[in-house]
Amino acid sequence: MIEARQLTKRYGDKTAVDGVSFTVRPGAVTGFLGPNGAGKSTTMRMIIGLDAPTSGTVTVNGRPYARHAAPLHEVGALLEARSIHPGRSAFDHLMAVAHTHGIPRRRVSDVIEQTGLQSVARKRAGAFSLGMGQRLGIAAALLGDPQTVMLDEPVNGLDPEGVLWIRTLLTGLAAEGRTVFISSHLMSEMALVADHLIVVGRGRVLADTTVQELVLQAGGDTVVVASADPAELRRLLAGPGVEITGRPGSEQLSVTGLSAREIGLVAATHGVALFELTAKTVSLEEAFMELTRESVEYHSATVPGRAA
Amino acid sequence: MSVATDTRPVEATPVRAVDPRVRVTARGVLRSEWSKLWSLRSTWITLGIGLLFLLGFGTIAALRYESMLGSAQMDPDFADSTAYSLALFGVPFSLIALGVLGVLTASGEYSSGMIRSTLAAVPRRLPVLWTKAAVYGVLAFVAATAGAFIGFLISSGVLDGTPAELALSADGVVRGLLGTGVYLGLVGVIGVALGTLLRSTAGGISALVGTFMLVPGLMSLLPQAWRDDLNPYLPSSAGDAMTAMQHSAGTLSAGAGLAVLLGWTVLALGGAAYRLMRSDA
């Protein structure tokens, strides 16, 4: 359980995290989603006390991280920035971390096996590929058998097999009742693993929701229908919970709140000829873009338009 | 596209009770720092260089003295030498090597990012600094003391029967050799403190070399009266007083030298502790 209350971090004039409040609950994978520069990594560093908040508080299982007797047993973290000395072997790195808590050598071997690093455990970490480095970081995060697992951009640099491995690992950890908190700027990746979403942009929480709600919020599923008599069709379809938009003079209408099947049946019953009937699902990516459009820090020259 | 629909139960369910043996302890931090030190190749290399300087240069100096004895022209620098002074010829060089390794043990954590792993494991932070300083300080002390004694035995063996001959039992020799070990041990601690304070290998080494090699030279720019007042209290002068076999005029006694150098060490550690606690990692 992670609880942030009015968490704020300023660097001079720049506010990286701006009064953020959220709760990350056990037994589920919570996605921490936002464009680059939204303050995700800073928030995660504040959770484990690497950065001190300018104001506000964040606790882990009821206490600030540093106040726990066995911090690594509370939160295991993989940070986005490299946190490993390149001159040390994977085994020596894990062992050095394990010593602080009196974690036995057996546990070090366990996490090496769990992350598939057996063959390279004695090699210097500096020679590791991005993916192996990521696995080593995850091994270190799991070392203390933590109640909360927090991973910053865990799929970065992983090959498809590695990505699949992470997904299985994360859902497995959540199923064991742990708190799983992962950040990403890729909505599509989040959609596959996250139960809950906290969306941030420019240091603020934009949404604290489920994946499904996020889609509904962004306009939900729309049906595009073109007919010979759009005005008549509009009248026929109108009803509670149904929203219809269409440009004057166009034979096309966008309908939300009704399925393509329902619209087709209504049109057939009333003899309105249809030329097109297309169900358009708002993709999560689009929902995310819509939500964070205002808060993207660095727009490309051509701002990607909303496709739906 | 698949859409996750449910948010699972929200009540906190601990994975398992915290194993009471798994917790941060002083002993654990000590073992961690010890293993971090020895799992890097740079430790072995730099420590080896430090010892090589101490033993090698002392031995070369003794051999050089011995070879000049028969000839007519004795280098004036060597004229008043003893087996003790010749044996410790390499101290300034060894000091740099051991000080640099001290800087590296701390600055290397920052340059590599390891510090984030270290401080995530020990979020109270200060135990890391104290332990690192103690572990490396003791190591540098042991290495330097061993080097000084072995170097002296080599030199006194080489110089047996010459005017520079000196026995280990001679007045002040054992105390001076131990003083050398303590001096280099404290330089190691100052190195750790500078590395933690500046968080940069280049910066830490510059500060170390500046303090022990350049500042003494700059003193000649000061008026004579100031120089005489200040000079004995420089870290390098305090260290020289500790390593001196006999007390000479215008310098501190060995005990006072130790007190002054300890003062500088505490100052450096204080600065390092302040930065460690106040700055984000």
Q: What's the assembly state of these chains? A: heterodimer
Count of beta strands of chain B: 0
Distance between the ends of chain A: 36 Å
What is the 3D form of chain B? globular
Measured as a percent range, the helix fraction of chain B is over 70%
Q: Which regions of chain A are unreliable across 5 or more consecutive residues at pLDDT < 50?
A: 302-308
The gross shape of chain A turns out to be: elongated
Largest sheet of chain B: none
Spatial strand order of the main sheet of chain A: 5-6-7-3-8-9
CATH class of the largest domain in chain A: Alpha Beta
Labels describing this entry:
heterodimer, A: 308 residues, alpha/beta, Rossmann fold, Alpha-Beta Plaits, 6-stranded mixed β-sheet, 4-stranded antiparallel β-sheet, 26% strand, B: 281 residues, mainly alpha, 12 helices, 71% helix, globular
Q: Which SSEs are present, and which pair or pack?
A:
The complex is a heterodimer of chains A (308) and B (281).
Chain A: E1 2-11, E2 14-24, E3 29-33, H1 40-47, E4 55-60, H2 71-74, E5 75-78, H3 90-101, H4 105-114, H5 130-142, E6 148-152, H6 160-175, E7 179-184, H7 187-193, E8 196-201, E9 204-210, H8 211-217, E10 222-227, H9 230-237, E11 243-245, E12 252-256, H10 260-269, E13 274-280, H11 284-292
Chain B: H1 26-38, H2 41-70, H3 76-79, H4 83-87, H5 91-112, H6 114-121, H7 126-158, H8 173-198, H9 201-218, H10 224-230, H11 235-243, H12 254-278
Task: Give an account of the 3D structure.
The complex is a heterodimer of chains A (about 300) and B (about 280). Chain A has two domains: about 1-215, P-loop containing nucleotide triphosphate hydrolases (Rossmann fold); about 220-280, Alpha-Beta Plaits (2-Layer Sandwich), CATH 3.30.70. Helices cover about 35% and strands about 25% of the residues of chain A. Chain A has helices at about 40-45, 70-75, 90-100, 105-115, 130-140, 160-175, 185-195, 210-215, 230-235, 260-270, 285-290; strands spanning about 1-10, 15-25, 30-35, 55-60, 75-80, 150, 180-185, 195-200, 205-210, 220-225, 245, 250-255, 275-280. In chain A, α3 packs across α4 and α4 (about 105-115) crosses α5. Mean pLDDT of chain A is about 90; it is low at about 300-308. Chain B has one domain. Chain B has twelve helices and no strands. Chain B has helices at about 25-40, 40-70, 75-80, 85, 90-110, 115-120, 125-160, 175-200, 200-220, 225-230, 235-245, 255-280. The two termini of chain B are about 40 Å apart. Residues about 1-15 of chain B have low confidence and may be disordered. At the A-B interface, α2, α3, α7 and α8 of A face α1, α5 and α6 of B.
